[in-house]
């Protein structure tokens, strides 16, 4: 029974990993497409430096060699939870800025938001399979949105989008 | 608070009821009405529409409440009213409710979803389900879906109740989908469907398909673009293709295109062929749906050299010259898949196999036939087809001097599936291939030969051509060996002999007898037969008799009907039968003969024989009894010569015995006595002038001592034959016939002359009379021929007294040397001489023999050959009648 559970868990894990990777790939692909649209619609320069955006966790994997799998999952989960919060904020701001006139961009942003959310769910599920359970979201909540000017907000949005695209 | 206060109400108000359930309604009366109108619950009447509900269903709960119960709501209808009988008579409505009857929703079943890709980033998901039975109520369906950690707004169908489309779904996360149906009677949910939308995607088909010919003539390269991101799904493909004009698609093996790609080289194609391509895709792992097929694109492979030589055959015409053939070589154009390009030329090589050093004859032709005149012998013919790329392998045909090899056996045909199958039994030897020849047999057109090759290992094939039904085909099979050829074996066949002949045979009689008739008919032509004639049937009948049928073998064209009734009209017709039916020809009638062959002869011959016998007997009888008959038929006539009057005239010798002419007619012994025979009934009155010419005759008569009597001499001249032959004038004959037979004593003188008593014997032939008449003609008309005049001239020469007569004067002008005259003269002499010599009759031979002598005696000395006379007998006939009194010699008179 335990063996069966273990096999089932392994299968489940493999499935989650597989789909998580593909989801990440699609997310990246969509975001790359979206970035162009976003830059165009917001009147930004594609070469604008968005290297550091406050409150946006880096999705880089430089330190993965030093971490266990669970740690990686935890970091990723925290990061995508942050992305999700940021994207939600951004989507709200986009709606205010662009209104209903650019519904396609809004839908694309919503789709990315959903994917980020889905990816976070994958990570949570993987952590559950690791018998850890996901950490509560309260602790990893997004920072309160800073009060920024319009341009900063646009630029920040670009930075937010750029992260999952890396 | 309305203007009119109701006296009661019904509970429940406007209920929605499940069909088939039970239902109870209450009618509650107001207390105020009780006091006002003495209305109580026991007076309540329930009605459905206008129909009173049976009171068994009522129940009075108290004095203000009445209930009605329905065990099955299907008997309910709207409205359900509560009524009361006021004062026991007047029915008043208290209240009414609307009853709605329906069904609770069923659980939606068969929920299924599909994600249609509509653009590169848009993936709407459409779910469909079976909504279940009709509820008769307003039922709402909702498509619900959620992630484990997140719910989404419901998808509400528009205008339909069995499908809904979620505008955008995210992949790689399991989505739980279910349908909720709800109405006034309840709510139902389908089983949930948990799926990752990526597993139910129907992607857009690849687009921008292009086809390019490759280096090889059998390869075409396809390129396309995929419209779904590789990040979303990896794709596999199906590629299908077909030859333009063909309807059947071929497919590239799926395993060759089971990985993501944007191009593929299709191999194994035919050179120089236009292909149509189409492509589709689906998720690489096969989970999901295939896209639609892409738009079709065409491409043409490049040319290649012909893959095989053209099939070749020949027709040999040896009829024109025994020593040489006219060989019609013919080959079939290669099929496109064999030609592999445009055939530019055929190269034909003919080599005589009989002599080793015979030259190779080459011909380059653009057509598919070649006619050659070749001496009889064995030849090897090769044909090569050439296109832009190269030449085909050669096709070889051996034409042997004679088809001496074993032929096929048992050639047979079988119509099958609208085609004509030909089968044969192979010879024992190894056959390289077979040639099947066929042509349509028709009277109206020549047998145009078609043919096809078949490999040596088959023993049957379908004819590849436009084989028409109801037509006769002559099919011939030739086996071809490596070193020769077998003679052709033929069979006639129909693809579909499903018709009776188009006309029947025309029958007629060849010979009709008394009890039999020989009928003949012509065979139906091939075009009329429509099938093989299996039999003929002859129907014959009399006018009022039953029809008799006789079946005749189809190979015959003649049949003898026997046991017929004689002298009877028969009607006969003939039917020709194929397997599918018969057709009658026109009716023919004939009448049998009354008598059979030989019957008439059997009657006539005995009758004739009997007649002949009777005649013979009669003749014999007459011969035996001739004396008796003669006595009765020819009575004894008294001989006038022995009469008393003959003895009575003393000047006339009783017997004429002229020994010589001189003695008979002494020169110049003319007398004055004329012997003129006058018919007893002569009605002519001779004028004096008319009778003048007779003066001479009178004198002539007198020279014969006036007594030209004697039976013998007269008999000679009285010959009827001579009389006819000597006279062409009927009048003369008539006159002759009316003469008096017997002697007459003439005692009248001529005019004033004293008559001399003479007697003369008148004969039937009356030469004298004739002479007299002719003399009369000469004298009166003066138009007698020269010959006649000549006679008179001669005659006149003897008598100067007659020289002044006009006719004689004219006669003098005519030369006496005239040859014709001489002949005529000679003839007259002969006549006279022969008469004298023979007494009876005048033999022509004698006449001819005597002629030269007479001619020699002519005064002019001219000689006329006897042949000339013989050669011109009419001149003799045309001579004046010898009955005329003639004076050949002086004073001569020839009794005729």
From TrEMBL, chain A:
<keyword id="KW-0963">Cytoplasm</keyword>
<dbReference type="GO" id="GO:0048680">
    <property type="term" value="P:positive regulation of axon regeneration"/>
</dbReference>
<keyword id="KW-0217">Developmental protein</keyword>
<dbReference type="GO" id="GO:0048143">
    <property type="term" value="P:astrocyte activation"/>
</dbReference>
<dbReference type="GO" id="GO:0005615">
    <property type="term" value="C:extracellular space"/>
</dbReference>
<dbReference type="GO" id="GO:0070120">
    <property type="term" value="P:ciliary neurotrophic factor-mediated signaling pathway"/>
</dbReference>
<dbReference type="GO" id="GO:0005737">
    <property type="term" value="C:cytoplasm"/>
</dbReference>
<dbReference type="Pfam" id="PF01110">
    <property type="entry name" value="CNTF"/>
</dbReference>
<dbReference type="InterPro" id="IPR009079">
    <property type="entry name" value="4_helix_cytokine-like_core"/>
</dbReference>
<comment type="similarity">
    <text>Belongs to the CNTF family.</text>
</comment>
<dbReference type="GO" id="GO:0030424">
    <property type="term" value="C:axon"/>
</dbReference>
<keyword id="KW-0339">Growth factor</keyword>
<comment type="function">
    <text>CNTF is a survival factor for various neuronal cell types. Seems to prevent the degeneration of motor axons after axotomy.</text>
</comment>
<dbReference type="GO" id="GO:0005125">
    <property type="term" value="F:cytokine activity"/>
</dbReference>
<dbReference type="InterPro" id="IPR000151">
    <property type="entry name" value="Ciliary_neurotrophic_fac_CNTF"/>
</dbReference>
<protein>
    <recommendedName>
        <fullName>Ciliary neurotrophic factor</fullName>
    </recommendedName>
</protein>
<dbReference type="GO" id="GO:0008083">
    <property type="term" value="F:growth factor activity"/>
</dbReference>
<dbReference type="GO" id="GO:0043524">
    <property type="term" value="P:negative regulation of neuron apoptotic process"/>
</dbReference>
<keyword id="KW-0524">Neurogenesis</keyword>
<keyword id="KW-0221">Differentiation</keyword>
<dbReference type="GO" id="GO:0005127">
    <property type="term" value="F:ciliary neurotrophic factor receptor binding"/>
</dbReference>
From TrEMBL, chain B:
<keyword id="KW-1133">Transmembrane helix</keyword>
<dbReference type="Pfam" id="PF06328">
    <property type="entry name" value="Lep_receptor_Ig"/>
</dbReference>
<protein>
    <recommendedName>
        <fullName>Interleukin-6 receptor subunit beta</fullName>
    </recommendedName>
</protein>
<keyword id="KW-0597">Phosphoprotein</keyword>
<dbReference type="Pfam" id="PF00041">
    <property type="entry name" value="fn3"/>
</dbReference>
<feature type="transmembrane region" description="Helical">
    <location>
        <begin position="603"/>
        <end position="623"/>
    </location>
</feature>
<dbReference type="InterPro" id="IPR052672">
    <property type="entry name" value="Type1_Cytokine_Rcpt_Type2"/>
</dbReference>
<keyword id="KW-1015">Disulfide bond</keyword>
<dbReference type="GO" id="GO:0070102">
    <property type="term" value="P:interleukin-6-mediated signaling pathway"/>
</dbReference>
<dbReference type="InterPro" id="IPR003961">
    <property type="entry name" value="FN3_dom"/>
</dbReference>
<dbReference type="InterPro" id="IPR036116">
    <property type="entry name" value="FN3_sf"/>
</dbReference>
<feature type="region of interest" description="Disordered">
    <location>
        <begin position="697"/>
        <end position="740"/>
    </location>
</feature>
<feature type="domain" description="Fibronectin type-III">
    <location>
        <begin position="202"/>
        <end position="304"/>
    </location>
</feature>
<dbReference type="GO" id="GO:0004896">
    <property type="term" value="F:cytokine receptor activity"/>
</dbReference>
<feature type="region of interest" description="Disordered">
    <location>
        <begin position="756"/>
        <end position="785"/>
    </location>
</feature>
<keyword id="KW-0393">Immunoglobulin domain</keyword>
<feature type="domain" description="Fibronectin type-III">
    <location>
        <begin position="107"/>
        <end position="200"/>
    </location>
</feature>
<feature type="domain" description="Fibronectin type-III">
    <location>
        <begin position="501"/>
        <end position="595"/>
    </location>
</feature>
<feature type="compositionally biased region" description="Basic and acidic residues">
    <location>
        <begin position="771"/>
        <end position="780"/>
    </location>
</feature>
<feature type="compositionally biased region" description="Polar residues">
    <location>
        <begin position="756"/>
        <end position="768"/>
    </location>
</feature>
<feature type="region of interest" description="Disordered">
    <location>
        <begin position="855"/>
        <end position="882"/>
    </location>
</feature>
<keyword id="KW-0472">Membrane</keyword>
């Amino acid at each position: 029974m335990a063996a069966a559970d273990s096999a089932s868990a392994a299968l489940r894990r493999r499935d989650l990993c597989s789909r998580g990777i593909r989801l990440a790939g699609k997310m990246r692909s969509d975001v790359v497409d979206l970035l162009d649209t976003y830059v165009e619609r917001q009147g930004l320069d594609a070469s604008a430096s968005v290297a550091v955006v406050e409150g946006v966790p880096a999705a880089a994997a430089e330190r993965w060699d030093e971490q266990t799998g669970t740690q990686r999952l935890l970091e990723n989960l925290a990061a995508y939870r942050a992305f999700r919060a940021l994207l939600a904020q951004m989507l709200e701001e986009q709606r205010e800025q662009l209104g209903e006139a650019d519904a396609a961009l809004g839908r694309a942003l919503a789709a990315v938001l959903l994917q980020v959310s889905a990816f976070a769910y994958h990570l949570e599920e993987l952590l559950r399979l690791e018998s850890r359970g996901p950490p509560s979201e309260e602790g990893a909540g997004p920072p309160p949105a800073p009060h920024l000017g319009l341009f900063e907000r646009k630029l920040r949005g670009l930075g937010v989008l750029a992260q999952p695209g890396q | 608070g309305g203007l009119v206060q109701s006296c009661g109400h019904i509970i429940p108000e406007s209920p929605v009821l499940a069909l088939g359930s039970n239902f109870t309604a209450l009618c509650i009366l107001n207390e105020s009405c009780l006091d006002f109108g003495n209305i109580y619950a026991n007076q309540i009447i329930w009605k459905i529409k206008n129909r009173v509900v049976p009171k068994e269903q009522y129940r009075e709960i108290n004095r203000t409440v009445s209930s009605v119960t329905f065990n099955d709501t299907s008997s309910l209808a709207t409205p359900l009213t509560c009524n009361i009988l006021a004062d026991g008579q007047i029915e008043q409505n208290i209240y009414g409710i609307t009853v709605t009857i329906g069904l609770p929703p069923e659980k939606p079943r068969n929920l299924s979803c599909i994600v249609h890709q509509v653009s590169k980033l848009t993936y709407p998901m459409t779910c469909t389900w079976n909504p279940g039975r009709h509820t008769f109520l307003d039922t709402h369906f909702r498509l619900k879906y959620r992630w484990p950690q997140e719910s989404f707004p419901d998808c509400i169908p528009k205008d339909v109740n069995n499908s809904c489309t979620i505008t955008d779904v995210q992949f790689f996360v399991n989505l739980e989908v279910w349908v909720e149906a709800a109405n006034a009677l309840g709510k139902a949910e389908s089983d949930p469907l948990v799926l990752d939308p990526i597993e139910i995607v129907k992607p857009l088909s690849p687009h921008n398909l292009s086809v390019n010919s490759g280096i090889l003539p059998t390869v075409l390269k396809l390129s396309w673009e995929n419209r779904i991101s590789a990040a979303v799904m990896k794709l596999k493909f199906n590629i299908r293709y077909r030859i333009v004009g063909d309807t059947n698609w071929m497919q590239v093996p799926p395993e060759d295109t089971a990985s993501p790609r944007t191009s593929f080289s299709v191999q194994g194609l035919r050179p120089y062929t236009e292909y149509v391509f189409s492509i589709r895709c689906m998720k690489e792992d096969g989970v999901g749906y295939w896209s639609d097929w892409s738009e079709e694109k065409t491409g043409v492979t490049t040319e290649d050299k012909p893959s095989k030589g053209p099939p070749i055959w020949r027709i040999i015409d040896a009829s024109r010259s025994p020593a040489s053939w006219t060989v019609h070589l013919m080959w079939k154009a290669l099929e496109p898949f064999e030609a592999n390009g445009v055939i530019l030329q055929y190269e034909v090589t003919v080599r005589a196999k009989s002599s080793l050093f015979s030259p190779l004859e080459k011909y380059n032709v653009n057509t598919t036939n070649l006619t050659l005149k070749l001496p009889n012998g064995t030849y090897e013919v090769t044909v090569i087809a050439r296109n832009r790329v190269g030449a085909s392998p050669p096709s070889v045909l051996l034409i042997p001097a004679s088809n001496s090899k074993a032929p096929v056996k048992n050639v047979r045909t079988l119509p099958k599936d609208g085609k004509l199958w030909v089968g044969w039994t192979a010879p024992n030897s190894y056959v390289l291939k077979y040639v099947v020849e066929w042509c349509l047999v028709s009277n109206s057109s020549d047998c145009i030969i078609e043919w096809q090759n078949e490999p040596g290992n088959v023993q049957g094939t379908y004819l590849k051509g436009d084989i028409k039904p109801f037509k006769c085909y002559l099919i011939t099979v030739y086996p071809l060996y490596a070193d020769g050829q077998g003679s052709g074996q033929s069979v006639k066949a129909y693809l579909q002999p499903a018709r009776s002949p188009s006309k029947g045979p025309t029958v007629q009689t060849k010979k009709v007898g008394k009890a039999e008739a020989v009928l003949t008919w012509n065979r139906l032509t091939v075009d009329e037969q429509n099938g093989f004639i299996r039999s003929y049937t002859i129907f014959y009948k009399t006018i009022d008799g039953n029809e008799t049928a006789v079946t005749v073998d189809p190979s015959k064209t003649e049949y003898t009907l026997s046991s017929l009734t004689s002298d009877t009209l028969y009607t006969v017709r003939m039917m020709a039968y194929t397997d599918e039916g018969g057709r009658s020809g026109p009716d023919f009638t004939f009448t049998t003969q009354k008598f059979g062959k030989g019957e008439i002869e059997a009657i006539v011959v005995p009758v004739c024989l009997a007649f002949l016998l009777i005649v013979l007997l009669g003749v014999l009888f007459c011969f035996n009894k001739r004396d008796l008959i003669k006595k009765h038929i020819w009575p004894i006539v008294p001989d006038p010569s022995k009469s008393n009057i003959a003895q009575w005239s003393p000047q006339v010798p009783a017997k004429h015995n002229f020994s010589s002419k001189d003695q008979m007619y002494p020169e110049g012994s003319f007398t004055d006595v004329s012997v003129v025979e006058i018919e007893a009934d002569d009605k002519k009155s001779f004028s004096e002038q008319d009778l003048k010419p007779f003066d001479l005759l009178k004198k002539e008569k007198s020279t014969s001592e006036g007594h030209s009597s004697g039976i013998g001499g007269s008999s000679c001249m009285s010959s009827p034959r001579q009389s006819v032959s000597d006279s062409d004038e009927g009048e003369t004959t008539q006159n002759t016939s009316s003469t008096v037979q017997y002697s007459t004593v003439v005692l009248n003188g001529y005019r004033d002359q004293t008559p001399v008593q003479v007697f003369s014997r008148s004969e039937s032939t009356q030469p004298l009379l004739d002479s007299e008449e002719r003399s009369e003609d000469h004298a009166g008309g003066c138009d007698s021929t020269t010959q006649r005049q000549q006679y008179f001239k001669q005659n006149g020469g003897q008598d100067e007294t007659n020289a002044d007569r006009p006719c004689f004067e004219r006669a003098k002008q005519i030369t006496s040397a005239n040859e014709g005259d001489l002949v005529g003269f000679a003839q007259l002499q002969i006549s006279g001489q022969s008469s004298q010599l023979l007494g009876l009759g005048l033999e022509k031979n004698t006449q001819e023999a005597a002629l030269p002598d007479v001619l020699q005696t002519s005064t002019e000395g001219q000689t006329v050959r006897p042949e000339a006379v013989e050669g011109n007998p009419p001149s003799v006939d045309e001579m004046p009648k010898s009955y005329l009194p003639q004076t050949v010699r002086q004073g001569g008179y020839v009794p005729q």
